[in-house]
# Entry
Amino acid sequence: MSLINTHVQPFEATAYQGGKWVQVSNDTIRGKWSVFFFYPADFTFVCPTELEDLADHYEEFKKLGVEIYGVSTDSHFSHKA
# Structure
């Protein structure tokens, strides 16, 4: 489902990025291109090919000014692992 040009409801989350914890919120992404990829849980084989494909093309997205956010039901500690 595409939500292009829609407003994101207020949210706050702790993420693991670049070896450190970072806070992400609706203010973090305001005025920027972002892709949110939702998946059920880490360490499952539900969608590893999609996650790997996003990782393989991450630098291309960055060059275009797009940030990718992987979202699951896991805690930020699980994402670090």
Q: What stands out?
A: Residues 48-56 form the longest helix (9 residues). The radius of gyration is 13 Å.
